[in-house]
Amino acid sequence: MTSTTEPAEPLSVEQLTATTLLRFATAGSVDDGKSTLVGRLLHDSKSILTDQLEAVEHASRNRGQDTPDLALLTDGLRAEREQGITIDVAYRYFATARRRFILADTPGHVQYTRNMVTGASTADLAVVLVDARNGVIEQTRRHAAVAALLRVPHVVLAVNKMDLVAYEESVFAAIAEEFTAYASELGVPEITAIPISALAGDNVVDASANMDWYGGPTVLEHLETVPVSHDLAHCHARLPVQYVIRPQTAEHPDYRGYAGQIAAGTFRVGEQVTVLPSGRTTTISGIDLLGKPVDAAWTTQSVTVLLADDVDVSRGDLLVPSKDAPPTTQDVEATVCHVADEPLTVGHRVLLKHGTRTVKAIVKDIPSRLTLDDLSLHPHPGRLVANDIGRVKIRTAEPLPLDSYADSRRTGAFILIDPADGTTLTAGMVGESFAAPQPVKDESDDDGWDF
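Now predict its structure.
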């Protein structure tokens, strides 16, 4: 088969610099067409290299298919290709003239919920696919709940396979109404519903001639225009110290700088800051960015901060404005998603990594486990197994400066690590969960609980 897709004109450095970055994740039940949607998006936006397309065409012919299976562009593992499912998170990077994108194609199986948590944890937008023939199902609600739990600010409902329901507007409208009501109840701030056919290309990159009743944007148009604010200047300023720079050379005999990536907010020369957890205060005397002094630096920039006083600062400390310092605590209450095969139990001794700081900790209690199907709580389960989401109480050996996850997705997050082998056990979000679930079940009512 000969490809009819012309290679896209490469974007200049100036164009790429001028465009904003959108991180988004796809989710949906098995066979809803996530990987096909991603493949169609890459194909129709001319973001595929010629050799990549040729490899997909060759693999598709070997499987007896007459047309390229675009899902193969993201399903890279052998098991994924053999079973026709997505198992691991597949990341793809592409750009248009209007915006740069990092997308995460996440699995749809219930047992891979932890993979969706990984892919959506840094996403600005989540695309939740629904098969138009099946409508909103249990896994759809689960993915909407995970997106809400992770505070993803924008959710797109992509009602796929509209070609298999004769492009009926009524089918789309019913699904969109049901999903919007559920997601709004969870607290999702913005929901956009788009009817598509990933296989045929309807409303993915180009507008569909088969659905003239739909007047909204295509998937790519929405991705290119959805407002994404990376200006976190008004957020709590936070700089986790990653490295202490002290060259002690003839050229820089007294230089002592504290390097790291700004997690949120803006820091300025002359600003009074506090070093946490010690609580010592000082003033920023200089900021170096790419080897040059600047007056201010902001979120995601990697900088070296110089301080007016010779205070004790080391890797793992957190620099914050003195007027906006978070409290420090050794008692952490959080919502977590357990990602390891080994269960997390009460009394479990772990390492807690927050920013650049890692401390010893112990799991004091697991008050509840969340059932995402109906948002009910199972009290005191005693343990969390892989893919479980629940509430935990943790006691740390040292005080930590923690923000609420609702206030900061970066400094309100942490992971629990197995001290024996360094395996990541659990991803945690400090503070309250995404919504007020239904009342806790009475234990006498729990005969049918499925562990």
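The two ends are 50 Å apart (CA to CA).
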